[in-house]
Amino acid sequence: MKKLLFVLTAAAVMAHGAAMRADVIEQVLVKVNGDIITKTELEQRQVAALRQRLNGQNVDPDMLKTDEQLKKALAEITPHVLVNAIDELLLVQHGKELNLHLSDDQFKQVVNNIRKEQKLEKDEDFTRALAAENMTMDDLRKQLERQMIIEQVQRQEVGSKLTITEEEARQYYAAHPDEFTEPMAITLREILIEVPSAAGGAGVNVAADDEAQKKIADVRARALRAEDFAKLAAEVSASSSKANGGLIGPFSRDDMSPTLQAMIDKMKPGEITQAIRTPRGYQIFKLESVKPAAVQPFDSVRDLIAEKVAGARTQTEMRKFLARLRTQAIIEWKNEELKKVYEKQIAAESIGQ
């Protein structure tokens, strides 16, 4: 059974916590404007964060085998998890004050999209997939509504402040030329003369190597006598590029081997390299063209600039908005250690802004 989207995995985490709260008296860690975050919810968020770290950073699961390793990992992720949990709750509360909610039609459309993307067209397949995540349709709806409200609040409270003026765009363009510079593009033609391996595949066939070396020298001499390089490539090259007259590229200078870089740096378009020994055999290259690095015109990257500036500004404005919500909130801690962790993380984020 294919897994649902990551959003459903996150929803399953929350739903699992809700199911546990229905069966036991839950330990409340903090109240935020009257709404609670429980020990179970925090633990489930920690599990989700650890899973994301393992997947996203290619961390070896064996690194979390011992209690000491797990404690260290939890100590690293918990401050962010705790701040994010409270921030999300504040955003949802603000959204509800704005009467934001997920309509029946919106929920139906989102579910239909998920089913199509995950190839779960049949009702029974979708139901089994939800069950595999310990979820019900009601759990899914609550989580999707939570996400929708958070996104809507961000758009309403932050999106309106993201208009980029022409002057701002030009200032960013002037201050970050490297971001809009197209690198040097080099186009080559190649001819490869292969050297067969020795019998049994061990080592090099010396006679075959000598023969290939003589052949590439002869081909290079013909090219230097003004024979068409593309036709020569089509005639004798063992590379797949022979079908295109040996044409390869364009590509960046950094994509070439140091040996080839050194040769190309001294050449002009139309010139041909000395023969180079490669794992497959002997190659020669003709420098077809060099397109120098160039800054793209402002008008051609105007939309990209707007995205870059808006992205940076979104983070800044969102931090300001969340700071305001935190200041206005009534946060009642039931766990002093977590309170210290939270306040330390908030202070660290404020310094880093």
Topology:
Elements: H1 6-23, E1 28-32, E2 35-38, H2 39-56, H3 67-97, H4 104-117, H5 123-132, H6 137-157, H7 166-175, E3 181-182, E4 185-194, H8 206-224, H9 229-236, E5 247-251, H10 258-265, E6 276-277, E7 281-291, E8 294-295, H11 302-328, E9 331-333, H12 336-352
Antiparallel strand pairs: 1-2, 1-9, 3-8, 4-5, 4-7, 6-7
Tag the structure with descriptive keywords:
12% strand, 12 helices, 4-stranded antiparallel β-sheet, alpha+beta, 353 residues
Summarize the structure in words.
The chain is α+β, with helices and mostly antiparallel strands. The protein is built from 12 helices and 9 strands. The protein has helices spanning about 5-25, 40-55, 65-95, 105-115, 125-130, 135-155, 165-175, 205-225, 230-235, 260-265, 300-330, 335-350; strands at about 30, 35-40, 180, 185-195, 245-250, 275, 280-290, 295, 330-335. The strands form 3 sheets. The protein has a 4-stranded antiparallel β-sheet, with helices on both faces. A 3-stranded antiparallel β-sheet has the order 2-1-9. The chain is elongated and about 85 Å long. Residues about 1-25 have low confidence and may be disordered.
Judged by helices, strands and strand pairing, the structural class is alpha+beta
> β content, as a range?
5-15%
Number of helices: 12
Spans of at least 5 consecutive residues whose pLDDT stays below 50 are 1-24
Helical amount: 55-70%
Number of strand elements: 9
Average residue-wise pLDDT: 86
Euclidean distance between termini CA atoms: 44 Å
Largest sheet: 4 strands, antiparallel
Strands in their spatial order, largest beta sheet: 5-4-7-6
Name the overall outline: elongated
Q: Gyration radius, to the nearest Å?
A: 31 Å
Helix/strand order? HEEHHHHHHEEHHEHEEEHEH
